[in-house]
Amino acid sequence: MTARPANAHQARLLRLLRDAGPNSRAQLGDQVELSRSRLAVEVDRLLDTGLVVADGLAASRGGRRSHNVRLAPSLRFLGVDIGATSVDVAVTNAELEILGHIAQPMDVREGPVAIFEQVLAMAAKLRASGLAEGFDGAGIGVPGPVRFPEGVPVAPPIMPGWDGFPVREALSQELGCPVMVDNDVNLMAMGEQHAGVARQARDFLCVKIGTGIGCGIVVGGEVHRGTTGSAGDIGHIRVEQDGRQCACGNKGCLEAHFSGAALARDAEAAARDGRSAELAARLESAGRLTAADVAAAAAAGDATCLDLIREGGNRTGQVIASLVSFFNPGLVVIGGGVTGLGHTLLAALRTQVYRQSLPLATGNLPIVLGELGPTAGVTGGARLISDHLFSPA
Amino acid sequence: MTARPANAHQARLLRLLRDAGPNSRAQLGDQVELSRSRLAVEVDRLLDTGLVVADGLAASRGGRRSHNVRLAPSLRFLGVDIGATSVDVAVTNAELEILGHIAQPMDVREGPVAIFEQVLAMAAKLRASGLAEGFDGAGIGVPGPVRFPEGVPVAPPIMPGWDGFPVREALSQELGCPVMVDNDVNLMAMGEQHAGVARQARDFLCVKIGTGIGCGIVVGGEVHRGTTGSAGDIGHIRVEQDGRQCACGNKGCLEAHFSGAALARDAEAAARDGRSAELAARLESAGRLTAADVAAAAAAGDATCLDLIREGGNRTGQVIASLVSFFNPGLVVIGGGVTGLGHTLLAALRTQVYRQSLPLATGNLPIVLGELGPTAGVTGGARLISDHLFSPA
Lengths: 393, 393
What we know:
Low-confidence stretches of chain A: none
Strand content of chain A: 15-25%
Mean pLDDT of chain A: 92
Radius of gyration of chain A: 23 Å
Pfam families (chains A, B): ROK
Oligomer: homodimer
Protein name (chains A, B): ROK family transcriptional regulator
Strand order of the largest sheet of chain A: 6-5-4-7-10
Helix content of chain A: 40-55%
Number of strands of chain A: 15
Number of helices of chain A: 14
Family (chains A, B): Belongs to the ROK (NagC/XylR) family.
CATH superfamily of the largest domain in chain A: ATPase, nucleotide binding domain
CATH topology of the largest domain in chain A: Nucleotidyltransferase, domain 5
Number of domains of chain A: 3
InterPro entries (chains A, B): ATPase_NBD, ROK, ROK_cs, WH-like_DNA-bd_sf, WH_DNA-bd_sf
């Protein structure tokens, strides 16, 4: 795909077809407030580019039947979600429906060269399976702050080897298509906005609790990235004076006290000092513990694990309560690996927010788990690159 | 003034003339990306409405000299800033320059009827002085959350008698002109954006520390009011577990520990229990203490007062540090009555933010005092109503 919309009207039409699927010319006209003749001109130009194709006659609305149009069925986007301990790669059509999805464990600290070798192999595998002849664009998420216009990670605490690596440029060259790069949490927010629990939301927060903790901020339907691309970096908000040492160099940061990594450390300590027989048995057999072990032990009624989850939920809930007072969102979405901790976690988060924030801010505020799980990030990646490609060149 | 711009182009032209003053047609054309003929049509229509008037010939740029246009010099806006303990009323021209300004002490708890009597008397005084024949619109700030579309205060903790009072409708009737109502902190942010320290900023925070504490949030040049109008309500973020009782019903809120009101209470306690001879003398002579007494005593070297300011600055700084991590602003402006505490306060705030937030978010982050002082709110009020009037009807 080399064509791009020539103006804002064409861009609007492309996004409408992406978000609502095939549409008749008449229906499109209802939504864009263009004169009938101007609409016809813009749709014809999009048909000329090949981005849009005719799709038969629409059902009659009385009078002459309108023609259907849709985005070219051959368009393919690649969504890549690089987490701290795993990578997800998916291929979508132009409506951002996932056609194929592969996930693999990996360690982001191996650095960009090793990780991208793996990502490219996964993309090749999806292509070889016949789902795509090539990719028209790719959207990549990484677990750290990104200088967005250039697509370069900046001083990411949990992925030090990536600082300044030209992700966008390098992958664009390897894949032979346009690439956009963003923080993984922003991708999750965009995914939940496109196809998940935030479909109707204009102003919402998406809190991702995985190895670290971050927050996607959506204002008026658009991701707010901040002045230097670090907006949403709530993992390093201080929750305890003279608290635990954090990887960022400070003490008492939220993610030093609660996150997938912190929970694994706490669980191993509880196993070793005899506070949980369940965790001790799991440590004995696996050699290490993760948040998933805590979730399983809690589900089996282990009191120590329930306490760990509640305490972490309380701390995180206090931070979210502050953000709710500050930002007054219409929705808070909780996502990431730690959502395996389920309703014990959610109950603790909700209790803190509903107790601490003013009633005016929480009166109609839903606090819910994300709907898409591991497909949120890759869907968000496809959305990111499609937003870019469906903008005037 | 009854005319409103007929379309987005005219609205854009009116705002350009407001923000940049008289302009030649040629210069306007450089900024709005309209064809020369379309620009001529839109400017002519604005001349027909009377909102814009001709203003002689522009300086030559080579070739035919262009005509100057400007906003009608007779336009008058009223800016009203209702604080907890004082009210400011000013009249501006269409470029939002202050032509006259009156301030009076008052207590917002007297309720809307008594306060508006005072406000209307102040407006009448400005009119009687010959500064305005009438008002073309008024922008009002109140110290609490506002349901913005209707202009109605909602559950405001420090002004309980105002809950649900139809401020916009009532004042619009009394003044005989369109009225917009907003939180006082948002007005301060708009004022500093229009004519103060935030003139170049697109994404910034404006923290007002007065009787209470609040924060104006500007995203992409626009005030973010949140889903129910309570965005920026940072005074009720919890800074201490089981801390002091707050007027909102919770414990440990920021403004229960540091604000003009909290500082006055702390100062009276220090005077009574012998920790500050300076404060004791002032309490003896005045019968009560305010933040201004703490500022004066600190300036005279009183160690207890310096400690009070530092401790409050540290607490507030920790909250601002969290917001900087979350929002990644390009600028933080500190305003409100407590800025009389000056550089001791600013140093404490800066220390916390620069120490706790990630370097990526603070690298180029200025934290500065507002420039406009008591005129920020009234300038913001005039800006608020002009934004409304200079929008397509």
